């Protein structure tokens, strides 16, 4: 069998963009259930927010020009205005109103002084103790949103902030792309489900607990897809084919880990061919994660990830998550990259990108730097726990020296 040349991460991303056609199926759901979902419509505000000028503080509202011309004046307080109870009467020069936060400011009044900066001489008489400025403590109409202003675009992922803003314009439902259904399975005779050993909590020689399947299920659910667990499949071609066939009937995408290389017990390539899948790519020029494949048959995908857990994690974050975004909605989130100086030395092979687990630390110069975290190795999952993100060492780089500027990709778990 001819060995395919490994493709760079950017080549793989272009291939997938060109090859994968988005499903773009959507549904209308309740807004309060939409956090993390991908919006399927452009949402513009039908109104200005706030609709009218309103008070930003509790205090007294008055005419600015009058206050400047009459700094020692004592005002007649002609009304008390609370939020939700607008005042429609006129307010003349030399008059003021007591006003509370959120209340609509009567026309003509263009300054509010906080209550603690006023001298209340009697129930209906007040003096302004400080020199005010025009527009002070007034939220202008349209200050939040102007009418027709975009709140969220089609393809945008809905955050709690957008939930709040959409609620403010009276939305209770929103169109979102359907969640993808993703089936997950692990392969390997040596892999054991932790629940199978609960009685004696022990492994036989040569066995290991399945890390990838629980981790992938967590990553998939965190990305707001529906995940189904298809267990562990032994290193047998017929068993793997049956497992894929079952999962394909019930899911848009099937993700397996292990069995993606060309070892004697790895039947993945043969099974993909038998199932009629076109292999889009088979190897990536990256570390960890070289043996990875994506196969396509119509709108169905099979994604084969490496067996090493760190490689599985990195491949999911960098390749699979954007791929699922593409399939679901056509809109792809690109990882945040922050250019920062390195504190470490590292040798690498050129023409292969590397993604090392890293932490952000403060250097002697007071600046934020990238330093390596945890033990090395694609199977060392402890290097992920406690890490702030990944540091990307690009293809053309042949080594890192302290002070070199590199891209840092933060984990979402470490962000605000």
Walk me through what this model shows.
By secondary structure, the protein is α+β, with helices and mostly antiparallel strands. The chain folds into four domains: 9-25 and 179-329, MoaB/Mog-like domain (Molybdenum Cofactor Biosythetic Enzyme, Chain A), CATH 3.40.980; 26-49 and 153-177, Alpha-Beta Complex (Molybdopterin biosynthesis moea protein, domain 2), CATH 3.90.105.10; 54-139, Molybdopterin biosynthesis moeA protein, domain 3; 338-414, Beta Barrel (Beta-clip), CATH 2.40.340.10. 19% of the residues lie in helices and 31% in strands. It has seven helices and 28 strands. The strands form eight sheets. It has a six-stranded mixed β-sheet. A six-stranded mixed β-sheet has the order 16-13-17-21-20-18, sandwiched between helices. Strand 20 (291-297) and strand 21 form a beta hairpin. Helix 1 runs parallel beside helix 7, helix 4 (212-222) packs parallel to helix 7 and helix 5 crosses helix 6 (268-274). The protein is elongated and about 90 Å long. The relative contact order is 0.13. The model has no long low-confidence stretch (mean pLDDT 92).
């Amino acid at each position: 069998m001819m060995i395919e040349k490994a493709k760079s991460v950017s080549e793989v991303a272009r291939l997938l963009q060109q090859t994968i056609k988005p499903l773009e199926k959507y549904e209308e759901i309740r807004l309060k259930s939409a956090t993390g979902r991908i919006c399927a419509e452009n949402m513009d505000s039908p109104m200005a927010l706030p609709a009218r000028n309103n008070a930003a503080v509790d205090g007294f509202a008055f005419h600015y020009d009058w206050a400047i011309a009459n700094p020692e004046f004592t005002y007649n307080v002609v009304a008390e205005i609370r939020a939700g109870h607008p005042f429609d009467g006129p307010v003349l020069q030399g008059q003021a109103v007591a006003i509370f936060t959120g209340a609509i400011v009567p026309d003509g009044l263009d300054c509010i002084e906080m209550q603690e900066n006023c001298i209340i001489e009697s129930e209906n008489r007040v003096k302004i103790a400080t020199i005010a400025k025009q527009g002070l403590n007034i939220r202008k109409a349209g200050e939040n949103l102007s009418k027709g202003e975009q709140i969220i675009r089609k393809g945008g992922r809905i955050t709690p902030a957008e939930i709040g803003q959409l609620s403010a314009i009276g939305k209770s439902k929103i169109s979102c792309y359907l969640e993808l259904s993703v089936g997950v399975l692990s392969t390997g005779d040596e892999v054991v489900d932790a629940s199978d050993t609960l009685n004696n909590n022990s492994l036989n020689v040569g066995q290991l607990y399945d890390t990838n399947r629980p981790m992938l299920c967590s990553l998939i659910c965190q990305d707001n897809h529906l995940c189904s667990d298809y267990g562990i499949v032994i290193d047998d071609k017929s068993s793997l084919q049956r497992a894929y066939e079952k999962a394909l009937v019930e899911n848009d995408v099937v993700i397996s880990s292990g069995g993606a290389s060309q070892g004697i017990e790895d039947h993945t390539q043969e099974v993909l061919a038998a199932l009629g899948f076109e292999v889009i790519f088979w190897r990536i020029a990256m570390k960890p994660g070289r043996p990875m494949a994506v196969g396509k048959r119509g709108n169905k995908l099979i994604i084969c990830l490496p067996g090493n857990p760190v490689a599985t994690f990195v491949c999911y974050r960098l390749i699979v998550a954007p791929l699922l975004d593409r399939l679901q909605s056509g809109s792809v989130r690109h990882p945040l990259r922050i250019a920062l100086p390195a504190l470490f030395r590292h040798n690498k092979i050129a023409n292969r990108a590397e993604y090392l687990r890293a932490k952000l630390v403060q250097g002697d110069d007071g600046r934020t730097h990238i330093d390596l975290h945890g033990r090395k190795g694609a199977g060392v999952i402890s290097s992920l726990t406690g890490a702030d993100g990944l540091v990307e060492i690009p293809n053309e780089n042949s080594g890192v020296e302290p002070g070199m500027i590199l891209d840092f990709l933060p984990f979402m778990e470490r962000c605000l």
